[in-house]
Automatic annotation (TrEMBL):
One Pfam family, short name: Aldedh
Recorded superkingdom: Bacteria
The name this protein goes by in its record: Aldehyde dehydrogenase
Record key words, sorted: Oxidoreductase
Residues in Aldehyde dehydrogenase domain copies: 30-488
Organism whose genome encodes this protein: Vibrio ulleungensis
Lineage, opening ranks: Bacteria, Pseudomonadati, Pseudomonadota, Gammaproteobacteria, Vibrionales
């Protein structure tokens, strides 16, 4: 076991091995457990109990019972509990940031700067919407005396990936709970710690038993049992396009609506009139954030011919100056890749990109620093090549950007839109009016200008095409998506 310099409360949480899962207000163990591995060392930091299909089945049963009262709870009560949860998250920010850092590998500063506070804000944002919502709307029609009532669906199931466990969980469950649904959550097997800690905070906040259930388990076993349970009324999945397609199929057979937030291959269009230094800084930050394991990051950079050489030279310097290190060290700007398997995949993609004619401008190797040799590190990588290179098209999910040249702005929009994903793109230009026109033309859920990875509650974050369907997150529309509409009419 690695010796870690951690907050004593973090250590105390990890000590109770294997960490139990949380179902119907009880902490349970299944008899099967797995190690939770720190990607900076590839050593176990704790073990977790793995829920089995019967545990998932039981959790759905309990969530169904809990829904009977939670779904009818006054919005002000739901608001108060969600706000309490947000305040407990803020109280324990240091512990949560440490858990996220040792589990995912990300710099602790990243977790305290974004993952944890932004998750807390999600519970507050949707708590407010819960009380502001109009649950009954008079229709004022001629033939009928009618109104629409908006009601929660029932049990909502959530399956999450390993890259932003705490934030994505908040984006998913906060609107569902605010609207009055109960939730059964399966976090990724590799990164369950912060979600289990959330369950502890939910218990302390006083959520009624069965409202929030957190059960780590294998995707193909426990996850499969959850997604195929026909009693769930809503399915929300965040993860790869391949697993999303499977979940969509399974839910389709049960006629359960599935909200799918999937992968991406974001384009950045860097125009000839862009502020080159700002674009280099913004895009280097975007592709090295969470070691590039960000669904909406910009991993295809289309650079205008006039500034290509200057931009690439500056980007190379910026990439080579990124400090790699264990997330818990203060100097680290980029941590290790979350799993050995994902690191191997990234190297494989880079090799295949080269086999298809791409050249490495910088990076693409393990760092020379001996102290990092046990972790899953890779140096930030710039590839240059052609549009038809498979890795200018497909998601790599690592700190790898593909450089492409362009001359004509309309032509580059067409080239960028040929990609089958549709998550997030950005335009970089000092001509804001022109940038807006180009931003409108890019096909995706999100078009950002002179920035990449832009989030704010109220700003809808969605997707189209191979990046998902089912509504997106972070806005009023997300909250409304967790309410079903029922017409009530009497003939006059
Ligand atoms: P996946 O391999 O798809 O795994 C995601 C989750 O699905 C894990 O909890 C996994 O469980 C579970 N799972 C696997 N097979 C399952 C099955 N048959 N039934 C039910 N659950 C199953 O994705 P990942 O590698 O963790 O995450 C990376 C991907 O997520 C990338 O493509 C990234 O772009 C995407 N992503 C998208 C977004 C948004 S908002 N669009 C945000 C973050 C990430 P195990 O952990 O046990 O395998």
């Amino acid at each position: 076991m690695t010796q870690l310099t951690l907050n004593p409360n973090t250590l105390a949480f990890l000590e109770n091995k294997p960490l139990a899962f949380f179902s119907n207000g009880e902490w349970l163990r299944s008899g099967q457990s797995i190690d939770v591995v720190d990607p900076a060392t590839n050593q176990a930091v704790t073990q977790i109990a793995m829920a089995q299909p019967q545990d998932m089945n039981d959790a759905v049963s309990h969530a169904e019972v809990a829904f009977k009262s939670w779904g009818a709870t006054a919005p002000a009560k739901r608001q108060a509990l969600l706000q309490k949860l947000a305040s407990l998250i803020r109280r324990d920010e240091d512990i949560l940031a440490e858990l996220e850092s040792i589990d995912v590998g990300k710099p602790k500063a990243e977790a305290t700067g974004f993952d944890v506070p932004f998750a807390a804000d999600s519970y507050d944002y949707f708590a407010t919407l819960a009380v502001e919502a109009q649950y009954e709307v008079e229709l004022g029609l001629k033939v009928t005396d009618s109104h629409t009532v908006k009601k929660p669906y029932g049990v909502a199931a959530f399956v999450f990936p390993w890259n932003f466990p705490f934030t994505l969980c908040a984006w998913g469950i906060a609107p569902a709970l605010a609207a009055g649904n109960t939730v059964v959550i399966k976090p990724a097997s590799e990164t369950p710690l912060s979600t289990l800690y959330l369950a502890k905070l939910a218990e302390e906040a006083g959520f009624p038993k069965g409202v929030i259930n957190v059960l780590p388990g294998s995707g193909s076993v426990a996850g499969e049992a959850l997604i195929s349970d026909s009693r769930i009324k809503l399915m929300s999945f965040t993860g790869s396009t391949a697993v999303g397609r499977h979940i969509g199929e399974v839910c389709g057979r049960n006629l359960v609506p599935a909200k799918l937030e999937l992968g991406g291959k974001g384009a950045a269009i860097i125009c000839s009139d862009a502020d080159v230094d700002a674009a280099v800084e913004g895009l280097t930050g975007a592709i090295t954030l969470n070691a590039g394991q960000v669904c909406c990051t910009a991993s295809r950079w289309y650079i205008h011919d006039d500034i290509y050489d200057e931009f690439v030279a500056k980007a190379k310097v910026a990439f080579e100056s990124i400090v790699l290190g264990r997330g818990l060290t203060e100097s680290a700007q980029m941590g290790p890749i979350c799993t050995e398997k994902q690191l191997a995949k990234i190297f494989e993609c880079i090799g295949d990109a080269q086999a298809h004619g791409a050249t490495i401008v910088t990076g693409g190797v393990r760092p020379s620093d001996e102290s990092l040799s046990d972790g899953n590190y890779i140096t930030p990588t710039l590839l240059a090549g052609a549009d038809d290179n498979p890795w200018a098209i497909e998601e790599i999910f690592g700190p790898v950007s593909f450089l492409l040249k362009f001359n004509d702005e309309q032509e580059v929009i067409e080239r960028a839109n040929r990609n089958l994903y549709g998550l997030a793109n950005s335009v970089w230009s000092q001509d804001l009016a022109k940038a807006k026109v180009l931003a409108h033309q890019l096909v995706g859920g999100n078009s950002w200008i002179n920035a990449h990875n832009v989030f704010e509650y109220g700003l809808h974050y969605g997707a189209c095409n191979k990046s998902g369907c089912g509504g997106g997150v972070n806005s009023k529309a997300t909250f409304e998506g967790y309410l079903r509409h029922q017409s009530v009419a009497a003939v006059r």
